[in-house]
Amino acid sequence: MLGPSLYLSEDELRRARRRVAEPAWKPAVEALRQAAEAHLAEPADLPPADTSWYDADPDRDYGRTYAHFHDYAAPFMRLSREADTLIRAARVFEHAPYADAALLRMDHLVDRFGFHVRHHDRGLVFARIVDGFAEAYQAFRPGLPAARDARWREQLTAAGEGICESREHWRTVLARMPYNNHLAHHQAGLLKLGLVLGREDWIGTALNGRGSFAYLLPGCITDDGLCYESSTLYHFGTLGALMEAAELTRHHPRLGRDLYRETFGNGRCLKQMFDAPLGLLLPNGELPALGDCYATRSPLWHRASCYEIALAVYGDPRYAWLLRQGGARRSAAALLYGVDDLGDAAAPPARSRVWIEHGYALLTSRDGDDYWGHDADGPTVAVLAGDVSGVHHHRDSLSLQVFADGRLWTEDVESRAVTTNGFS
Predict the structure, then answer these.
(1) Are 184 and 127 in contact (CB under 8 A)?
(2) pLDDT tens per residue across span 127-168
(3) Which segments of 152-279 are extended strands (E)?
(4) Which residues in 315-398 belong to E strands, given as ranges?
(5) N or C: which end of the chain has fewer CB within 10 A?
(6) 328 contact partners, CB below 8 Å, separation of at least 6
(7) Residue-wise burial string across 119-136, b where 16 or more C-beta atoms lie within 10 A, e elsewhere
(8) pTM higher than 0.85, yes or no?
(9) What angle in degrees, to the nearest 10, is found between the helix axes of 200-207 and 146-172?
(10) How high is the pLDDT of residue 422?
């Protein structure tokens, strides 16, 4: 029997199990089942954990070991993601082979991965590994023999200590970026680890003080809620990490916090980060690729997991509209957390506007409801970006994207990364 989840209440789990038999939820049910089955179909790819590249010269400049570090860590991040999917499926479908496959992956990580390796990206990567690792410990802890339990806790503690060291590295060596997305991942990782290990000091670090949620949110967003890093992709990297912390407080009332609804310095609140991208959308629902986006362009409703939870928390009809545009609700977030019915939906109001702190502007020939969903007879829209803010911005004096007749005619070529940075 699996132990309680970090993120999923008993009521939510019972509802998800009920939805398995309901035709309306078949797309989400089958998507989760297929994802889990895919991990059973082939033998688990259990990577080696060779740290000789680091141990031979741990003081090398981190820019020179960027590829080494990510080649080492990425397979273990994959194992963590796979285990997280399998544990979710094991809970919903009550199918023991999914849990067994997750345990196999996490036991390999526990026995092999070295959290001593240092890099600029260390805390970010460790926090992502902790996503599945901490949830797996919650799930399997009741059945772990004492010696294995001690080894799991040792590795979880090493992950937390690595994140703490990385936070200090960013505070001192990389102090020019005090609200970077890495720090959002650090606080989410420490909060998870604090909860599973009973480390009240890590919980306090994540929720209060420098580098905490309360510190980061007012500093990491500008204008009406866009991430200060001036990248429409990294906006969701930061938001995703802050959401993880908010979900933990939502599912652990003993913490006495509601990060979804609290208001912080400068009147900032988390909902502003969900709302802000709605004002930047092109008429086809695509979020313009501004800043470092690595050739990623897609409609905002491809972020359905994010907005399923946001709709469940806030009930904003604009989020329901967004989810409806995406068609069938297929995400695990919909199955586990989504509202039963999307209900009333309202398209975001569209208009020309300027984002002064970012140096963005959107100019449209039509506004209101007439902005959305046209093809040949649609509005002409120009998105201009001077990128005066942030970390993942570009140095153009002016970039221009033009949308007309239902398609994007020009894009920001610099949104396609052409060089590898020493850190992200």
Answers:
(1) no
(2) 999 999 999 999 999 999 999 999 999 999 999 999 999 999
(3) 221-222, 226-227
(4) 353-355, 360-364, 381-385
(5) N
(6) 27
(7) bbbbbbbbbbbbbbbbbb
(8) yes
(9) 30
(10) 40
